[in-house]
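Retry 2 of 3 after timeout on previous attempt. Resubmitting structure tokens to design endpoint.
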């Protein structure tokens, strides 16, 4: 039953979050900041409460008059202040309940999260206690009703026997001392609430308690607008000689009071006690089997190490290890915490489709804030140069211009991008950049030339980047390159990114390139030849037809110039009667035919996800050590945004 409720709530929250993402953007989606909003609203309530208290008369006779004076004085500012206090309280109850429901729906309440969940149950009741107590202070007809009903409810407990409600039967029974006690409670309970809020977030790694500034400003403006449009007013002075017959109730804070008025105090106690017990027990109710194992995380760049507890996300584990990981919403909606899983299995968790598209999943990418390790995992974090807190460095953003465009085949463009005068981008051969489109989407392309040589003075050519862009049917960026891009056009990009780089060892090198997977291989080869790498290097380049091969003269020149380099083209889309005399079939099978025992080699594979997924298991089954297999998979980008 609980699982069914969770699934229904989960579907509702995911649908609502998707709508809010489209309306406000993932950075300002209130569902991703419910806890922070609750903290912000607490301070709104606390500050406005202190201002109101400065003008409040704590005597029985003066309470109503002082509240009325504030409400109708100071050119309307007093009324706004009272409205902010009242509507802020309603909003805080709403955001806290939504926050708790959301975590229940996502089942984020077990294991190490149980502490925050249980303290959250206490926070809900303290918030209600403080809010209900606040309705007693204006000493109007509503205050009379709330006070009498509250004490009648408490009197239901054994031992009181109606002693509490006797204090509110006749006017002379309500003394200034008793009223001052109610005021003291309204100060003490919020202080206790604040303490428990602080305790609540202590087990949340890198917890933030302030919403984004635009969201905080929007909340304040909304509360002010509501306070002006629907000013809070008193409902006539309290009169203990009569019973209030018509009242306007606050249904956020006083939903059960009609039940108490009808004499159902026992039912209200049963509901409150039952909900509390169920809420506290939920983290330990076993809805399905869970592993209690902890797993080792290897995180790049670095590498850095962390240990993920049972059900702990990659992000939570990394932050707990004091790593400087990128994140924002922590809810699978913004995509800031994207990573690429290199080894091991993860449960991707719940996320918005726009933040983790099918193409990204096919590339092995995941969102750290949602993904949970199912075994020891190695992954690479996108967009950072270092994970050390004292070396945090944002990914560099660049502005370049198209210097030259060269069509190497009917469907492949060689693109040269020049940086501003005097600028040089330092990178490692095999890395890539993200080109940033007008709508904020990103397209990844590998460097197709060796990086600048740090051992010599900077040359003009060092400020030029080479990319290989293959036309993809329906591809937004690639279509633009082939049909609309002109020399001189500006291009915004970020980088360098990636770890598909040549490792230092003595092992012979085998390389496989699929289609434009040749681009990073070309960069690695140029750099290796320049550095004088003498290890045997053999490149297998797989394409469908001979027309898909390009830069063949350069490859022939390298093969003639470097006796340790061999090049083998492999075509997979030929008819049986095609005159091609070279190798045919799948490129990785051609490599295995030449090297059935891979135990002494290291292999670099770059191509489509399908090719990489087919090749790597075969290589491992032929003796290749997993630590000597390096791959970089890509998925063509199309108009549906699956990139």
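Retry 2 succeeded. Sequence:
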């Amino acid at each position: 039953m609980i699982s069914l409720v969770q699934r229904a709530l989960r579907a509702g929250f995911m649908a609502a979050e998707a709508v809010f993402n489209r309306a406000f953007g993932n950075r300002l989606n209130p569902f991703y900041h419910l806890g922070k909003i609750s903290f912000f609203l607490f301070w709104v309530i606390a500050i406005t409460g202190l201002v109101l208290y400065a003008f409040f008369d704590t005597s029985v006779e003066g309470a109503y008059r002082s509240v009325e004076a504030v409400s109708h004085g100071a050119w309307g500012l007093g009324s706004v202040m009272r409205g902010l206090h009242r509507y802020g309280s309603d909003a805080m109850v709403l955001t806290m309940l939504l926050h708790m429901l959301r975590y229940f729906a996502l089942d984020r309440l077990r294991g190490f999260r149980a502490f925050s969940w249980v303290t959250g149950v206490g926070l809900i009741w303290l918030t209600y206690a403080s809010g209900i107590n606040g309705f007693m202070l204006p000493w109007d007809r509503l205050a009379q009703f709330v006070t009498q009903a509250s004490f009648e409810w408490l009197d239901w407990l054994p031992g009181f026997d109606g002693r509490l409600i006797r204090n509110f039967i006749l006017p002379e029974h309500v003394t200034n001392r008793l009223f001052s006690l109610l005021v003291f409670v309204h100060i003490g309970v919020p202080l206790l609430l604040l303490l428990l809020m602080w305790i609540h977030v202590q087990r949340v790694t890198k917890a933030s308690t302030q919403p984004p500034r635009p969201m905080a400003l929007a909340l304040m403006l909304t509360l002010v607008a509501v306070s002006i449009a629907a000013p809070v007013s008193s409902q006539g002075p309290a009169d203990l000689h009569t019973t209030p017959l018509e009242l306007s109730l606050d249904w956020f804070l006083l939903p059960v009071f009609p039940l108490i008025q009808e004499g159902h105090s026992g039912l209200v106690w049963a509901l409150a006690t039952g909900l509390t017990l169920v809420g506290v027990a939920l983290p330990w109710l076993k809805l399905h089997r869970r592993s209690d194992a902890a797993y080792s995380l290897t995180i790049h760049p670095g590498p850095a190490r962390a240990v993920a507890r049972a059900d702990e996300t990659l992000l939570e584990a990394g932050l707990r290890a004091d790593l400087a990981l990128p994140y924002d919403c922590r809810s699978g909606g913004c995509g800031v915490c994207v990573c690429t899983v290199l080894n091991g299995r993860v449960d991707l968790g719940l996320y918005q489709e726009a933040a983790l598209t099918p193409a990204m999943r096919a590339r092995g990418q995941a969102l750290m804030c949602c993904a949970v390790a199912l075994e020891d995992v190695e992954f690479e974090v996108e967009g950072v140069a270092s994970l050390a807190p004292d070396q945090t460095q944002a990914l560099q953003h660049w502005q370049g211009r198209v210097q030259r465009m060269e069509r190497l085949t009917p469907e492949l463009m060689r693109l040269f991008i020049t940086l501003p005068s005097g600028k040089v981008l330092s990178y490692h051969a095999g890395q890539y950049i993200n080109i940033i489109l007008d709508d904020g989407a990103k397209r990844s392309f590998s460097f197709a030339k060796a990086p600048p040589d740090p051992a010599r003075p900077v040359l003009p050519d060092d400020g030029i980047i080479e990319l290989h862009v293959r036309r993809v049917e329906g591809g937004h960026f690639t279509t633009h390159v082939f049909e609309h891009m002109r020399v001189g056009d500006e291009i915004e990009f970020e980088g360098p990114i990636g770890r598909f780089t040549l490792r230092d060892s003595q092992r012979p090198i085998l390389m496989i390139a699929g289609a434009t997977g040749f681009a990073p291989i070309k960069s690695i080869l140029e750099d290796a030849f320049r550095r004088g790498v003498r290890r045997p290097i053999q490149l297998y380049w797989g394409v469908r037809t001979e027309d898909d091969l390009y830069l063949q003269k350069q490859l022939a020149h390298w093969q003639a110039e470097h006796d340790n380099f061999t090049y083998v083209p492999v075509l997979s889309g030929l008819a049986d009667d095609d005159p091609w005399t070279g190798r045919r079939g799948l490129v990785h099978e051609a490599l295995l035919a030449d090297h059935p025992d891979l135990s002494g080699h290291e292999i670099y594979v770059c191509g489509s996800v399908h090719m990489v997924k087919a090749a790597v298991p075969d290589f491992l089954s032929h003796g290749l050590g997993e630590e000597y297999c390096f791959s970089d998979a890509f998925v063509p980008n199309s108009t549906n945004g699956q990139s």
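Attempt log closed. The first strand starts at residue 295 and ends at 300.
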